[in-house]
Amino acid sequence: MAAITAAMVKELRDRTGLGMMECKKALVESEGSVEAAIEELRKSSGLKAAKKAGRTAAEGVSLIKVSDDNTVGYILEVNSETDFVARDDNFMTFANEVLDVAFEKGETDVAKLMEGELESKREALVQKIGENITVRRLVKIEGAVVGGYVHSNSKIAALVAITAGDVEIARDVAMHVAAINPRVAKPEDMPEAELEAEKNIIRSQPDMEGKPAEIVEKMMGGRINKFLKENSLVDQPFVKNPEQTVAELIKSGGGELVGFVRLEVGEGIEVEEVDFAAEVAAAAGTGKA
Question: How many alpha carbons lie under 13 Å from residue 174 in its C-beta half-sphere?
């Protein structure tokens, strides 16, 4: 029987999401075969399915496509495991093809988009490159004028829609969005939960201690207004001209903000870094105290 290595345990854990000792036991019983271990685990633990490729894909690219008349834009995130693969021509060709098909079909549902030929191409690319590749997010934005910006490394992309004006203004605002990352478009868009969280932070600050409630609330109002201005796109100083707000820039072209979308590669993906060799050794009772 093949020796059960930490790498084998890691692969089985990644693909099933089950505990280390359960995976190790399954590998022993399957004489070191990961595929056989998966089948047994599906029978014994209620595991519905194993991931075809369980490694975390948190690198990749964010791309945009805007219609010729600048009224519709699509923004897409495709992930790989490493930045090296994200710069591979085959990966970029695939990502651009996904975006083109989405644009042509008017599709924003990733699951529907990837049915059929695109999924087959993704699987073939996974086999060729040897890394997990996922199409993660796809968003459409519309307006009288739509402009987009992609950061030079394709890690951050943004689309902005405005009611009127030159497309260059929309592109400039998209560049600002990519650089500054506003939380919301307008102050009134800030979620109540985020406002309450900010208020709790303000109440806990040292200069609030011991003050009457009415004074705290008065000071709170000013600080919340400052928080909203700093985090709302329309009220932020334009990155290329801090003397002008983003709203003023858009208004200079006769328009108002409709909305924006910003995608940054890997945001929200938790990448767990674990020393599996040490973990296996510790579980086996051979780790050092």
Answer: 28
Q: Residue 282: what pLDDT?
A: 54
> Does 251 fall in a domain?
no
Q: Which domain holds residue 204?
A: 192-228
**DSSP states of the chain as a string?**
-----HHHHHHHHHHH---HHHHHHHHHHTTT-HHHHHHHHHHHS------SS-S---EEEEEEEE-TTSSEEEEEEEEESSHHHHT-HHHHHHHHHHHHHHHHHT---HHHHTTTHHHHHHHHHHHHH-S--EEEEEEEEE-SEEEEEE-TTSSEEEEEEESSS-HHHHHHHHHHHHHH--SBSSGGGS-HHHHHHHHHHHHTSGGGTT--HHHHHHHHHHHHHHHHHHHBGGGSEETTEEEEEHHHHHHHTT--EEEEEEEETTTT-------HHHHHHHHTT-S--
Residues 198 and 144 in one domain: no
Residues 63 and 169 placed together within one structural domain of the fold: yes
What CATH number is given to the structural domain containing 50? 1.10.8.10
Give yes or no: residues 49 and 71 share one domain: no
Q: Into how many domains does the chain fold?
A: 3
Task: Provide the β-strand partners of residue 62.
Answer: 77
List the CATH number of the domain containing 107. 3.30.479.20
Tell me the whole-structure pTM to 2 decimals: 0.73
Confidence label for 274 from pLDDT (cuts 50, 70 and 90): very low
Identity at 48, one-letter amino acid code? K
Question: Which of 45-59, 106-120, 191-205 has the highest mean predicted lDDT (pLDDT)?
Answer: 106-120
Are 76 and 157 in a shared domain? yes
